[in-house]
Backbone:
């Protein structure tokens, strides 16, 4: 539905902590036409330059909360509002090299009235500028 | 010239999802636009444009009502979902489902809506138990009849059986006019071609839908024509669309109190490409329907890759058509 808008390139950059690059981040939006509680967010598959990011290396910040992906399924109250951009932060010491990167994002949504839920996906070529 | 009727015109704010998602329009912008288009009724999806739904801050409701007054709009219907799968590892208990929909009923009442579009497959026994609360809050519960389901499907029949027994004016149906797709929407088949399907395959699949012939052998035929597995998957869309007879609504009229006027593409001459409103509206008039025709534009997702989406213009055209079909000056 909103697949082509899932990856928000403006938020793609390396992340520093205490002067050291600890990883990178990218903005993400859900492909669904309504906001949902976090427990309805299924598998998130992210790869950069063809390399899949291990789930335990990622956390997501949405609506002022930062959670490891494994925590999402235990959040039946907190919501991801329709169209809001979340920040996905990837733990990767040294971050990504400056230059072009191909980012792919697949998102499964657990939808009660669609037995198998549905998948959205986006792929964008983005720049790391620093 | 249309026969005298009491049908009202409205729009589901769902129609503006593209602009809202991309933050090109906020809720106030959309309400102002609806007002400018001369449309009175407003339908809203709680989870889409009501922040923090269903735990909505009172201050938000106050602002909502100020806007409705300011733009001279009438709230009509709120669309709910029953997320019975939101507790990982188990499904909601009957009591949790009851409490969830009760919360929706109270929210709809606070929004000023007198109808809730109930998501398909909500159990008849749950709705039966909720009927007294629906009456107390003056909110009618209408289960959406949405493709691939239709009036003659088992679930809808089980609802009708309960409705006939309970006889509550607060229980009924909200048919989505997407159950009357007569011609396959070209916005979908054209998108397939842009996504790499051979034009002759897109044409073939359209023919299968439009003529209701060859569905059994469609998949193998697509492969024979040089199609990809992906093409077979896309073509499967036609199994989720239905082309039923609008006159079937006449048998359900006492239970229909809101209508989703789904559309994919309003042509410049103000006709829908695939859903025959010129056949549907006269049936609603004949049946004495007096609720809203609530626009639901759903073409954005099929054209957004190649064309600018102009939901406002699409809704304008649909209402120009409604005015003509309803005999409004």
Residues:
């Amino acid at each position: 539905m909103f697949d082509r808008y899932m990856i928000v390139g403006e938020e793609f950059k390396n992340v520093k902590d205490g002067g050291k690059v600890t990883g990178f981040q990218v903005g993400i939006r859900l492909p669904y036409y309504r906001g949902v509680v976090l427990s309805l967010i299924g598998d998130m598959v992210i790869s950069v330059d063809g390399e899949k990011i291990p789930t335990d290396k990622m956390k997501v910040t949405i609506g002022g909360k930062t959670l490891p992906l494994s925590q999402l399924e235990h959040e039946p109250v907190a919501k991801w509002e329709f169209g809001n951009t979340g920040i996905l932060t990837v733990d990767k010491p040294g971050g990504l090299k400056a230059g072009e990167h191909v980012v792919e994002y697949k998102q499964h949504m657990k939808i009660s009235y669609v037995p198998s839920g549905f998948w959205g996906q986006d792929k964008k070529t983005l720049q790391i500028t620093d | 010239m249309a026969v005298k009727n009491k049908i009202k015109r409205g729009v589901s704010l769902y129609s503006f999802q593209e602009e809202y998602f991309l933050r090109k329009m906020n809720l106030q912008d959309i309400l102002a636009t609806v007002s400018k288009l001369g449309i009175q009724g407003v339908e809203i999806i709680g989870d889409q444009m009501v922040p923090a739904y269903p735990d909505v801050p009172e201050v938000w409701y106050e602002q909502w009502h100020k806007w409705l007054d300011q733009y001279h709009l009438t709230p009509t219907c709120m669309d709910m979902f029953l997320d019975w799968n939101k507790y990982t590892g188990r499904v909601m208990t009957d009591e949790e489902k009851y409490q969830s929909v009760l919360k929706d009923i109270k929210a709809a009442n606070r929004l000023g809506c007198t109808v809730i579009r109930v998501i398909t497959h909500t159990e008849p026994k749950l709705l039966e138990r909720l009927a007294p609360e629906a009456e107390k809050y003056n909110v009618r519960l209408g289960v959406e009849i949405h493709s691939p389901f239709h009036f003659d499907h088992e679930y809808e029949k089980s609802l009708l059986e309960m409705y006939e027994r309970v006889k509550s004016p607060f229980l009924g149906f909200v048919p989505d006019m997407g159950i009357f797709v007569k011609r396959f929407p070209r916005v979908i088949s054209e998108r397939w071609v842009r996504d790499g399907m051979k034009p002759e395959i897109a044409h073939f699949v359209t023919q299968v839908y439009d003529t209701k012939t060859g569905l059994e052998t469609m998949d193998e035929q697509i492969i024979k024509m040089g199609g990809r597995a992906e093409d077979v998957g896309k073509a499967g869309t036609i199994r989720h669309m239905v082309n039923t007879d609008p006159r079937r609504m006449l048998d359900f009229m006492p239970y229909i109190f809101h209508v989703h006027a789904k559309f994919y593409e309003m042509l410049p001459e103000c006709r829908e490409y695939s859903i025959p409103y010129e056949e549907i509206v006269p049936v609603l008039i004949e049946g004495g329907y007096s609720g809203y025709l609530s626009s639901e534009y759903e073409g954005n997702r099929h054209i957004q890759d190649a064309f600018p989406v102009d939901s406002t213009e699409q809704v304008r055209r649909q209402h120009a058509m409604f005015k003509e079909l309803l005999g409004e000056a």
